[in-house]
Specification:
By secondary structure, the protein is mainly beta. It has one domain: Pectate Lyase C-like (3 Solenoid), CATH 2.160.20. It is built from 1 helix and 35 strands. Strands 2, 5, 8, 11, 14, 19, 22, 25, 28, 31, 32 and 35 form a 12-stranded mixed β-sheet that branches. An 11-stranded parallel β-sheet has the order 1-4-7-10-13-18-21-24-27-30-34, with no helix packed on it. The chain is globular and about 55 Å long. The mean pLDDT is 96.
Length: 374
Amino acid sequence: MITRGGIYRGNWQSLNPKVPAVTIKTREPVIIENSNLRGRGDLIRGFNVDLTVRNTRGYGLNPQADQAFPGRFLAVEFIFNLRAENNFMQGTSGMYVNRFQGDAAKGQTIKILRNKVQDVDGRYVDHTGRPTGRRYYVQAVQLNHVVRVPNIEIAWNEMVNQPGKSAPEENINLYESSGTPDSPIRIHNNYIHGAYAVDPLNDKSYSGGGIMLGDGKHKDLAVSGGYIEVYRNQIINTSNQGVAIAGGHDQHVWQNRILSTGRLPGGEIIPTANVGAYMWDIQGGASQSPPTFFNNSIQDNLIGWTRFRSNGNTWYNNLWTPSCTSANRSVCSNNRSTVVDDQTERGELALWQNKLTAANVVVGPLQTATGLGN
């Protein structure tokens, strides 16, 4: 347990799914760096924190407890400041940030940069560790009720999920979260590959995908999602959707590469392969007073999203935009279609690696920490 501010380095493990590997109980700035974490529950948990986690490796273990799922790499609530940079996480249920109470004038915000995320896993297990077939909705990154916060950035992260080893909802989900008019949340230059059901061959109701904006049911304009820019990401083979605008306002999706063969790595058809990008005012925010759904856009993206008919024939379901109308000042234009096959998907990884080299960006830990292994 960390009860004082400072810089911490070490190896921490918890084999009790109800006990985090590291618990933070101080409002003073804490830095965890060059460390190794492993546990059956959350790896890092804290309330009212000012936290930096960098160059750290985290491994989620099977909780081996009834109706439990792997813990978060970090779960922080009512935060003052968060930076998660150059970390590696495998088999966890991602990073969860619930509510922000920091001071932007002091530079406090949320930065999630250059992390390598493998197999985000929300699968419930029983006491023997066997999956039950059910899942909890988890994400590589979720912001929950982080409202009107400037300078938030989620960028240069690599998120890869394998079927049968993971079960996320979206890879990135913004639930009732927003930036500001002058400083929107920036989600850019991420590589996202894969989002699959617990049973990816047979589940026909899986709703997970790449990036979800405007999630939530709040009818208050001050709380609904908004002021978000999503650009220059690569979203590959994420089942139900690549990018979604499901509510909110002033959210703009542009110059992304959104591609899927609609098949698992072994060639099997994904039953829930659906749509590359959509704009759908699920909660009817455009008709509220005042409206909460307006001024959104999906523009200048490269999209090729394969979907299968009942007879096995394929077609490209690149866009579904029933709520993209002039009445709510939304625009969906200049999106380019492309053919996608296995070679296309493999080529996206090479493109990502070349992009990192050109930008001189390193994803994952910058140095090797000794201690706990996988």
